[in-house]
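Blackboard transcription, Thursday session:
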Amino acid sequence: MTTRRAFIRTSGTIAGVLSLSSTSIIALAPARAWALELDALTTVQGQTLLLLTRHIFPHDTLDDAVYALVVKDLDTAAADPHVAKLLVDGINSLDATTDGKWLDLSSERQLQIVESIASDPFFEKVRSTAVVSLYNNELAFAHFGYEGSSFEKGGYLNRGFDDLDWLPPPPVEASPQP
Amino acid sequence: MATHGNTDTSVVVIVGSGAGGGTLANELCQKGVNVVVLEAGARESTGTFINDEWASFEQLAWRDRRTSSGSWRLATDFPNLPVWVCKTVGGSTTHWSGCSLRMREHEFNARRVYGDIDGANLLDWPLSLGELEAFYESAEAKMGVTRTNGIPGLPGNNNFKVFYNGAKRVGYDDCHTGRLAINSRPRDGRPACQQLGFCSQGCKTGAKWSTLYTEIPAAQATGRLDLRPGCHASRIEHDKTGKVTGVIYFDPNGNEQRQLARVVCVAGNAIETPRLLLMSESSQFPDGLANGSGEVGRNYQRHTTGTVYATFNEPVHMYRGATVAGIISAESDHRPERGFAAGYQLETVSVGLPSIASFLDPGGWGRKVTEAIDDYANMAALWIIGEDLPQSDNRITLNDNEKDQWGLPVPNIHYDDHANDIAMRNHGFRQGSAIYDAIGARRIIQSPPFPSTHNMGTCRMSEDPLFGVVNKWGQAHEVPNLFISDGSQFTTSAAVNPTLTIVALAIRQADWIALEMGRRTI
Ligand SMILES: Cc1cc2nc3c(=O)[nH]c(=O)nc-3n(C[C@H](O)[C@H](O)[C@H](O)COP(=O)(O)OP(=O)(O)OC[C@H]3O[C@@H](n4cnc5c(N)ncnc54)[C@H](O)[C@@H]3O)c2cc1C
Ligand code: SF4
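(Written on the board underneath:)
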């Protein structure tokens, strides 16, 4: 069908390889290479949103694969034409304010431009999506050391709820034995 | 499980099944009274609760649109979600963390003890601690509060260990694992806490008291409770004599229904309760039902709060185990020499990774946010919870420009911080930071309030009908068969988490309602 073809042509893919330093994440991943197919956004748009998210919530050792989850949620939201326009116009505005493509600029210059748009609805859309999507996933849990759902593992009662040993233990009057 | 007819004029109708409504329903049923509970939310269970912060929020929280105004930061940070309460059977006792403290004598006499404070609309409770003591005892026994009734305290988790050691260093000698309505031993058919760390997502073990699986099934077992989940009350009706006659509500199919009643009790939490009264205006009550004083919706209090996060060189894993795992009460007395009236508690709190970025610095971005999150595993946190002052203009009003899914005006929540609130919060930030500083915190972050979990004062109790909405039984001054059965009736907010007092008042109110029904005065 032609509509389907047109659709495929406008959509993109972003891809990457898990860095070897992401050991906690590699343990969860089926393979080191990852790819994300986009429905509404082009490859360059996806790459731009990924890098923008890295500027908004910069974690130097957090793999791109996790940032890609934010792009995925933005791409899903862009099924709504209003959101798609907000994102596409926003990406264009990043490019418009400069001497060239925002993606090609130095990191310092990119950040300056991000700061200049920080009160725009586009920025807020990306920030408010990322503030949840970036941290609410198993890969981020593994990276930052959060253990997530615990009920099925019997809670933390026998899994270190009180294993901190770099401070003296409180007396039993203050903290009774389990 | 009972079914009462919509035209049964003998029933007590309770709006809401949370701490106030759920408890009141059970107490009345135990006394032989037939009760209909209208609950806007669905019925979940320990089996359906989810160990996932955002998914649980979607499952249990009240997410209908609200608006906000005023100088409080929540109007900027969370303008359409300034309040964190639940819409589900059990209400916010599904999400609560169980900290259960009694109010102290001076807090019942805030006006007399704190004096006349500019801009504050202080009033003494028409009730003394002495009158409430026996009901506090019943509430603690019912809820299984640790460190009462011979129930041992919970063991402290890692977040507590950090808190305790810091407290010691700065000279706070009263730090312990608190009084919690969480089983430290199996009790009342419920198991002991497994330290899941998801207290605020609905406790999947049921170790934490919630009306969902304590009061409500107990009431159902009497055969007198007709619990109607998915039913949203929209209006309370009255007759020419000014007595209420029933409640209009939307049933689960969205159809309007009328349930007649002998008595109506409203326990929808301190936003929805005054909203329902305001929406029930009539020619006889032009400013809202029972609002001759003009106090319905006013004096909204939400506690002076703030969070202090600290990161260390070593791991903490604060999310492991009970959310409120410890308390310091040393700052809770009224000591005006600190530069503010009233006091505050310090309690541990923990926030999971999924919502940490939303709460650490609401609206924030960049390295100042992410560098702290990089140390998430090494982070500890505490919460300041202090008495805020009632102010007349801090109030719930109907926003006629915005409608909810029923076509009803959404509530607007206006709050300006009082200078006293700001001074108290800053003091709490200093002390909370000192606790972590004393044991070598690497970084300390003072975060503004997250959406208000404690909501009080919007239909307050008063001796004089001119200054409040209800008398000391929670009975409307102007409408004898209308009761307010939640934190809305608090005259002042007190430096203690509100639920134990809500439950004690509900137990006491049930006695009064049964007595008055017996005397045929209502
Ligand atoms: C995360 C969190 C942690 C907390 N921790 C503590 C703590 O440690 N200690 C403490 O003391 N307190 C705590 N609280 C506060 C505590 O949950 C509340 O004080 C308490 O539940 C209030 O009881 P309530 O009966 O007034 O309202 P709720 O328990 O909120 O119940 C109100 C019910 O009324 C229903 N309702 C409202 N309007 C309507 C309507 N029009 N029609 C039908 N139904 C309606 C709602 O759906 C809801 O189920 C916490 C709250 C939260 C959210
Ligand atoms: S920590 Fe205890 S109270 Fe909290 S959810 Fe887990 S079992 Fe329930």
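Lecturer's comment: Residues 8-147 of chain A form one domain.
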